From TrEMBL:
This is PcfJ-like protein. It holds the Pfam family PcfJ. It comes from the Bacteria.
């Protein structure tokens, strides 16, 4: 080694030592005045997230199954299996002889789901390693060469195989899915679930798929999931739904049809984001509101037409959110046609007036900004590229302090960001994008009576949240057009409320909705 290289190595080593000493020094001394701290700073160490660890372990295990490293032992094992005549054509169900087949399947589904929730996929698949042979996995990949998600899902549910994938014949009329899992006809709409990743919600619908195709009590299984239905007839008619529906859309469609609605009315509901709730798992108040709206429109089917339907839907949802703020329930039951139409038209005019006012303010700000820019250019040429902000002096622009509730969470869907809105301008922008009336809350926020937080997924606004600043109570959480939060949105809101808001405010007086 040359002398110059030795000198450079010694210098870099001393530089590293100096950096380490500097870091250690500032852990025990004040950065500005050099005084010794009574208590040293603690380096930030991220707390382990059990859910992320389980997800990483599951992902790694599935990758090893789908793309294993070739070894001599694997080759010998497959050769010996073929030599011994192990074709895996026999029934693969692991049954309890003391139970009826339907009861046995229900017990296995519940046990599997509980272990999946607590331990993850990898722990379950290790018990099915004999089934997950290279020949079976190759057969699945040959059947679905361009659909790796389906292959992964079939592997994940190896515990429910009825027949081995390697015994599937390509000229068979049945698909690989039917060959492996089906004993009874398969509902077309549930086939779509196999093309979706194994999220907790999708896993539940795949459990419903097994209940249909292998035969067990849907009533008992849905009770285990905590799903609520107004009528058990839903599960009889659900398989008849169109194949292009998602399970959630099919449930809404069948409920509208069961109550006497038309397909045209269903399409109108689907065009309104706030009328697409998960009626199986939504809270009681949201479900009752949805059913009351559907029944009201079916009752007045011939009297309400055209744009009146959309106006009434928008007004009813607005009333529902305003009643929720007061901890009251809003319903359409018993409301007269004339009063509803009059109230909906009044609200529509108020919304148009507000939008016109916002447009006028925007135009006033634009003109004022042009005049200000011209004046500034004349005064100082060097500042012509600077960005200007201006707010119309005719209208009060309130500002208020933050509560330090901003937070980010990382998930498989992206980055969830909670950002508190602290000015009238921010509330106006939120209301404009989300199409609701949060712009009216600026004075309440200024007076300390409310706090508004915007939930975003990868910078796209999803949910607007209102809280009571003193106690930290969650008053309401609504999406665009005042829709209810989805399950994943509600989960991350609950987590943030417990970990961030609850820790920085007094104990809550009221439970979360």
């Amino acid at each position: 080694m040359r002398t110059r290289e030795i000198r450079e190595m010694i210098k870099s080593r001393y530089r590293e030592m100096a950096e380490e000493q500097t870091r250690d020094y500032y852990l025990t001394h004040d950065y500005y005045n050099g005084r010794t701290l009574q208590r040293p700073y603690q380096p930030y160490v991220a707390e382990p997230n059990p859910e992320e660890e389980i997800a990483k372990r599951d992902h790694a295990y599935l990758n090893d199954l789908l793309s294993p490293k070739p070894t001599l032992g694997n080759a010998f094992a497959e050769a010996l299996a073929g030599f011994n005549g192990k074709t895996d054509d026999s029934d693969l169900r692991c049954s309890d002889s003391t139970l009826k087949p339907a009861e046995d399947l229900l017990v296995r589904i519940i046990e599997w789901h509980e272990r999946y929730t607590c331990e993850g996929i990898a722990a379950l698949l290790k018990e099915d390693e004999e089934r997950l042979s290279t020949a079976n996995i190759d057969a699945l990949q040959n059947a679905y060469p361009n659909e790796p998600v389906i292959v992964q899902n079939i592997i994940i549910f190896a515990a429910f195989w009825l027949r081995s994938p390697r015994s599937y014949k390509a000229n068979n009329e049945a698909s690989m899915l039917d060959h492996v899992f089906a004993h009874y006809p398969t509902p077309a709409l549930l086939r779509k679930c196999w093309k979706e990743s194994a999220t907790p919600e999708n896993v539940q619908w795949l459990m419903i798929y097994f209940a249909y195709t292998q035969g067990t009590s849907l009533k008992a299984l849905t009770q285990y999931f905590g799903w609520k239905t107004e009528s058990p007839k839903l599960w009889h008619f659900l398989p008849e739904s169109r194949g292009h529906f998602s399970p959630k859309e099919a449930v809404l469609y069948q409920e509208v049809m069961r109550l006497g609605g038309s397909e045209d009315f269903y399409e109108i509901l689907m065009d309104h984001p706030s009328y697409q709730p998960d009626v199986l798992s939504s809270n009681e108040q949201s479900r009752n509101f949805w059913y009351s709206v559907v029944r009201w429109f079916i009752k007045h089917d011939e009297d309400v037409v055209g744009t009146e339907i959309t106006r009434i839907l928008t007004w009813a949802r607005h009333q529902y959110t305003e009643f929720m703020r007061e901890r009251k329930a809003f319903t359409m039951n018993g409301r007269s046609l004339s009063k509803v139409i009059r109230s909906a038209n009044d609200y529509h005019r108020a919304v148009l007036a507000h939008q016109a006012e916002l447009a006028r303010r925007a135009e006033a700000r634009r003109v004022a900004a042009i005049e200000r820019a011209e004046q500034q250019r004349q005064e100082d040429v060097e500042r012509r590229e600077r960005a200007y902000t201006y707010y119309d002096d005719e209208h009060e622009n309130y500002t208020w302090k933050k509560h330090n509730w901003d937070k980010q969470y990382h998930s498989h869907k992206g980055v969830w960001t909670f950002r508190e809105l602290v000015s009238s301008q921010e509330l106006n922008l939120e209301a404009n994008i989300m199409e609701h009336c949060v712009y009216d809350y600026d004075y309440g926020c200024y007076m300390g009576e409310s706090a508004i937080v915007s939930l975003r997924l990868d910078d796209e606004r999803c949910i607007t949240i209102e809280l009571e600043p003193t106690s930290g109570d969650l008053i309401q959480a609504m999406g665009q057009y005042n829709r209810d939060p989805e399950k994943d949105e509600l989960d991350v809101i609950r987590k943030w409320h417990i970990e961030v808001v609850k820790c920085k405010t007094r104990p809550r007086k009221r439970p979360l909705p």
